[in-house]
Amino acid sequence: MAGPAASENQNFCFKEELDAFKLSLSPTKEVILEHYLAGWSGLVKFLNRLGNVFGFISKDASSKIQILRNFLNGESGSEYFTVQSMVKYELENKLVDLKKAGSHPESGCRTLLRLHRALRWLELFLERLRTSQEDGKTSAMCAESYNESLAQFHPWVVRKAAGLAFCMLPGRLAFFEVMNVGTPDQVVAMLGEALPVVTEVYQITQELYAKHDLLDIP
Ligand SMILES: CCCCCCCCCCCCC/C=C/[C@@H](O)[C@H](COP(=O)(O)O)NC(=O)CCCCCCCCCCCCCCC
User: Which residues form the Glycolipid transfer protein domain (predicted)?
Assistant: First the structure.
């Protein structure tokens, strides 16, 4: 697969995309939705640069980002400032279908849970990338991370399609180039700095969802 043109590369740097997750952590360790979504948009942008075979994944992620942005820009937008305030607001106002799909099939809590589960995949994948050898296979790293996380929530047909798409991932070096961060050493260093942030955002959200028994929203 040919890499993106140099001019295109100037508009993209993986580090900046991940920085949005850093910004999403408030001083009181709440997760600011706007920045969280900006982080996801950056990842989707990256995914789109990898080629059309990932289109079905980036479409699903984009539509979930959009659902949440609509809440944020809607009339109750201020309630959606952080993930914590969103959970409180939606639960207090009975805006979440907790056990089975009903009148709120696209609640903020439910939609964010899907992205949250994918964040665990990201964490596992970035850690594998960071510690990979020069001849490491991104497709295998991606598949292993997926099988350990997101796959359990997906039906067979989605798992199958995802597995096929992973085979189309470029090799480690070409993948690093698409990230546009610098030399492989610089990429590895950047990942070392970025990962703890991803982990922290994941853990805070995980604890919040567990506390409110929201981890299985249909
Ligand atoms: C680099 C390769 C990227 C591979 C992406 C790995 C994740 C694979 C996810 C496969 C999702 C398939 C699409 C369909 C999903 C939905 O069925 C399913 C359930 O939704 P529903 O309850 O509304 O029906 N949706 C989801 O689980 C949410 C998936 C969100 C995936 C976001 C993936 C963004 C990937 C960003 C790549 C960034 C890589 C950066 C590496 C340096």
Answer: 33-180
The three-state (H, E, C) secondary structure of 34-99, written as one string: HHHHHHHHHHHHHHHHCCHHHHHHHHHHHHHHHHHHHHHHCCCHHHHCEHHHHHHHHHHCCCCCCC
SS3 category, 136: coil
Ligand 1 binding pocket includes 118 (Cβ within 6 Å): yes
Give me the pLDDT at residue 9, please. 55
Given pLDDT bands bounded at 50, 70 and 90, which one contains residue 7?
very low
- Evaluate whether 96 touches 109 at the Cβ level (below 8 Å): yes
CA of 169 to the centre of ligand 1 (A): 14
Closest residue by CA, ligand 1 atom 5: 57
Residue with tokens 């991104």, as numbered in its chain? 138
For residues 86 and 32, give the distance between their C-alpha atoms in angstroms, rounded to a whole number: 10
Task: Say what the pTM is.
Answer: 0.95
Distance 168 CA to ligand 1 centre (A): 15
For the chain, which domains are there?
13-211 (1.10.3520.10)
Q: Which two tokens stand for residue 203?
A: 């853990």
Task: Kindly indicate whether the ipTM for this predicted assembly is greater than 0.95, answering yes or no.
Answer: yes
Q: What's the 61 CA to ligand 1 centre distance in angstroms?
A: 6
> Which residues have a Cβ under 8 Å from the Cβ of 139 and sit 6 or more positions away?
166, 167, 168, 169
> How many angstroms separate the first and last alpha carbons of the chain?
37
